[in-house]
Design goal:
heterotrimer, A alpha/beta (351), B mainly alpha (217), C alpha+beta (145), B: 217 residues, 9 helices, C: Ribosomal Protein S8, Chain: A, domain 1, five-stranded antiparallel beta sheet, 43% helix
């Protein structure tokens, strides 16, 4: 539960000085391309801030987003975020269960009214009264609406929460919708990705905490600091695209030489995320560097874009069948038209 | 479904259906029309129909010497944008991949940078063709809506394609969608307007050549 | 060196540009006390550019190793007031790399609140330390004395 100590005091009790904030702000400021003066302000604000109450709701999701955010090798810079927040409710990480944890959620909501942040991963099923996903006897919709009522802001973590994601993929059997579709009277920040880059999640929370406001968002509600750049534009394989050097198969010489993966269905040109610059696992690699095209997982409906291995210039849908049918029909129509014309000519000649 | 999904899905699918249906319909209707059998005996030394057709096709690749000077612009500029279009359509990897995705056919393509330059030249050449059409009194007199619309639907994909690769004015996915939609417009119009010459030009020239070469007794 | 290096010209030029910027920043620090921070990760540097810049700046007298939420390194360059700061994150990867033009980088200075907290702690320690009860160490000292 959130207490009245500042983050600086809390860390000091653990034997960590306020230098940690300077370091954290330098790192985050660099990631978010903040001006150095803003980073310094962030360090000062963080030290003075109270621990942020966070209620994490999990709906139709796979827990991959939680896996991503908790994936670190040891107590490091990136883990500081867990000292900055008070995670008051989280299905996977909570120790309590049953009535106790629901009570904890209500207590956190009452105690931090108007100040707590709701993080949601997963989409909300709306079909058949929302029966496809429930917790503690309540539909996801009811839990969401009850919890966000007094929230300061809502962070939709992962593509399912941000855009509906895989549960919403065609034919969307549960009538899944995104959090932004339901929450209209609170700021909703989308951190899509399947899963999102951990730094994009923690960075956004830290920004909220330091400045008490929502960072600048793009037209899909994503923080521009992390989703402002196109994967293709920042891809280290881009020169191969320009030179026309493409891998034709995953095991050909081009693939081994690290050529462009456009032909193998890479969706980098229409995807906005920080993978190409920030990379994964502390800067080790990202999908394209590991030899697979971008799936476009931080974009709406990425599951329904005609297949992961269809090049971006290829069409979506049963084009080949349609064209085959059209060819047959066109041929019949053409031959019939010619036959009619011949018949008419013959009858004219006779007449 | 966003604009790009619409362009890559329903829009291009409908356009492809119209294109293939229209082309086969019109082409077969003409090819199977047949003509009255010529019952005369060909004169000695008359070239065969195939040779005559090929000769006529080749002959019309350049203007008749009498008009060579007067037609120098149309001749040169016409070649530039036709060859340019062919290079852009068949030489750009993403374009080839569209066809490969449908048919499995593939061929070697050019570096993207080369195609961008050719695309830009093609665009200038198409613009010059319009200026010529508007400024030359004779050409202007014989031009109608079909000519201008054919020019418009040809120019549009070149222009939108260059804008898309240049990321000018909007996000790439929007520009790409607009480009694909402009191609859909071209596909829908192609079988029914003057652009159908893409399929008929050699048929008509060949037929004319074979017909005129024959001397019956 | 140049014979081995693939792209000597652009590498040199970017390092040169930052070097020139640092010269201005240092002049400002000397005249007005205005501090500057350059985020090296925000610049399109390659590894050779960083090496080139590090070589130009040279080594100074101070090198500090910090253990604060992972490792950090603060080093004064050959130019007094120009500091090279590196923060390490998960897996000991470089998480942030900056050049500070300042008399002393902020991260080295003890924060007033930390000082106040430490003052309380040390006072508590003094109060708790049984001055009247001799400790083992004290006894040892006494026996020697």
């Amino acid at each position: 539960m959130a207490d009245q100590k500042t983050l600086g005091e809390r860390l000091a009790e653990h034997g960590v000085s306020r230098r940690a904030f300077v370091k954290y702000a330098s790192w985050l400021g660099s990631l978010m391309a903040l001006p150095p003066a803003t980073s310094r302000a962030m360090a000062a604000e963080l030290a003075k801030a109270k621990r942020q109450s966070v209620i994490w709701l999990s709906f139709q999701e796979c827990t991959g987003c939680t896996e991503s955010i908790t994936r670190s090798k040891g107590p490091t810079l990136e883990d500081l975020i867990f000292d900055f927040i008070s995670l008051d409710y989280h299905h996977t990480l909570q120790a309590a269960s049953g009535e106790a944890i629901e009570a904890a959620r209500h207590a956190a909501m009452a105690e931090n009214k108007g100040k707590y942040v709701v993080v949601v991963d997963g989409s909300v099923p709306m079909k058949d009264g929302g029966i496809y996903s429930t917790t503690a006897g309540h539909s996801n919709y009811d839990t969401l609406m009850e919890t966000v009522k007094d929230a300061f802001a809502v962070i939709s973590v992962g593509t399912c929460a941000a855009f509906g994601g895989i549960p919403k993929a065609n034919p969307n059997p549960t009538g899944a919708v995104s959090i932004g579709d339901l929450v209209k009277d609170k700021p909703v920040i989308n951190i899509p990705g399947c899963p999102p880059i951990p730094e994009a999640m923690t960075g956004t929370v830290a920004y909220l905490l330091s400045f008490g406001k929502v960072p600048e968002l793009d037209h899909l509600g994503r923080p521009k600091a992390f989703f402002g750049e196109n994967i293709h534009d920042r891809c280290y394989r881009r020169p191969f695209y320009e030179r026309g050097q493409f891998a034709h198969a995953f095991d050909d010489q081009g693939a081994r030489d690290g050529w462009c993966l456009y032909e193998l269905g890479c969706k980098g040109p229409i995807t906005y995320n920080a993978c190409a610059t920030m990379k994964w696992n502390g800067g080790v690699s990202f999908p394209i560097q590991s030899g697979h095209g971008c799936l476009g997982c931080s974009e709406p409906d990425f599951w329904d874009k005609g297949g992961f291995y269809v090049p971006l210039s290829g069409s979506i849908g049963p084009t080949a069948k349609l064209v085959g049918g059209a060819a047959l029909a066109g041929a019949v129509a053409g031959v019939a038209a010619a036959a009619v014309a011949r018949h008419r000519k013959a009858s004219l000649n006779k007449g | 479904m966003d604009l790009l999904d619409f362009a890559r899905g329903p829009a291009i699918n409908v356009a492809m259906v119209v294109l293939v249906f229209g082309v086969l319909w019109r082409l077969l209707a003409i090819l199977f029309l047949g003509k009255a059998p010529d019952r005369t005996i060909p004169r000695l030394g008359t070239p065969g129909p195939v040779g005559a057709a090929l000769r006529e096709i080749m002959r019309r690749m350049v203007p008749h010497p009498t008009f060579a000077f007067a037609e120098r612009f149309s001749f040169f500029n016409g070649w530039v944008f036709h060859v340019g279009l062919a290079i852009v359509v068949f030489g750009f990897r993403p374009h080839m991949l569209f066809i490969k995705n449908l048919t499995g056919l593939s061929w070697p393509t050019l570096p993207s940078g080369v195609v961008y330059v050719v695309g830009a030249i093609t665009l200038v050449s198409l613009a010059a063709a319009l200026v010529r059409r508007l400024t030359n009194p004779v050409q202007r007199f014989i031009s109608g809506f079909g000519d201008y619309f054919a020019w418009f639907v040809t120019l549009l994909p070149v222009l939108t394609g260059l804008i898309a690769v240049g990321h000018v004015g909007a996000r790439y996915e929007t520009l790409l969608a607009i480009h694909i939609l402009s191609v859909a417009l071209l596909f829908v119009w192609l079988p029914f307007g003057k652009l159908f010459h893409a399929f008929l030009v050699f048929v008509s020239r060949g037929t004319t050549g074979a017909f005129l070469a024959r001397r019956g007794v | 060196m140049n014979a081995e290096c693939g792209h000597p010209a652009p590498a040199a030029s970017l390092a040169d540009a930052v070097f020139a910027e640092l010269a201005h920043a240092l002049a400002r620090l000397a005249e007005t006390g205005e501090e500057t921070v350059i985020d090296l990760r925000s610049l399109p540097f390659g590894p050779t550019d960083l090496e080139a810049l590090a070589e130009k700046l040279g080594d100074g007298e101070v090198t500090c190793a910090l253990e604060v939420a992972g490792r950090s390194e603060v080093r004064e360059t050959g130019f007094a007031g120009v500091w090279w700061v590196r923060h390490f994150g998960a897996g000991d990867e470089i998480a942030a790399e900056e050049v500070h033009v300042t008399r002393i980088p902020e991260i080295l200075v003890s924060h007033p609140d930390d000082v106040a907290f430490a003052a309380r702690r040390i006072a508590d320690a003094v109060a708790a330390s049984p001055q009247n009860e001799p400790t083992a160490a004290d006894e040892e000292d006494m026996s020697r004395g």
